[in-house]
Design a protein that fits this description.
alpha+beta, binds tetrahydrodeoxyuridine
């Protein structure tokens, strides 16, 4: 699908903006809204460590803060800085929880090694039985 190719390309491009002087692991993400808009992110680390934020959450928070609320897919690519990834970079648990807040189980998570090597999951596969707003409305 052409839109997914564009998304994968945007995620790969974002790795160069990553600020990762501590882990030297650079991550890029590109989030596709249901309206067809793309929001990008990279990981941003901090000397105090815990303020570090993942590429995926940067992309989500940029989108939410711009008024987007409905999402279709996210492409994620990560690996050692200045190297091509030799593995898929799956989202951490915190990022899966953020996805769960704004997306349904059918939301697509595209793990990217390179333009020709991707693996697609949906959120329900990566976060089964997640805690969400429905738990609080009972
Ligand atoms: N990281 C991400 O940005 N996304 C992921 O899916 C996994 C981990 C970042 C956080 C930290 O800056 C570095 O990668 C190493 O954990």
């Amino acid at each position: 699908m052409k839109k997914y190719q564009e998304l994968v390309h945007a995620a790969i491009k974002m790795r160069k903006y990553s600020y990762a002087p501590y882990s030297h692991f650079t991550v890029g993400a590109a989030l596709l809204s249901k309206d067809g808009n793309i929001f990008t992110g990279c990981n941003i680390e901090n000397a105090a460590y815990s303020p570090t934020i993942c590429a995926e959450r940067v992309a989500f928070f940029k989108a939410i803060s711009e008024g987007e609320k409905e999402f279709e897919a996210i492409a994620i690519v990560g690996g050692k800085e200045n190297e091509k990834p030799n593995d898929y970079c799956a989202p951490c648990g915190v990022c899966r929880q953020v996805m769960n807040e704004f997306c349904d189980g059918n939301f697509k998570i595209i793990l990217v090694k390179n333009e020709n090597d991707i693996s697609i999951y949906n959120l329900l596969e990566l976060l089964p039985k997640g805690f969400g707003s429905h738990n609080l409305s009972k």
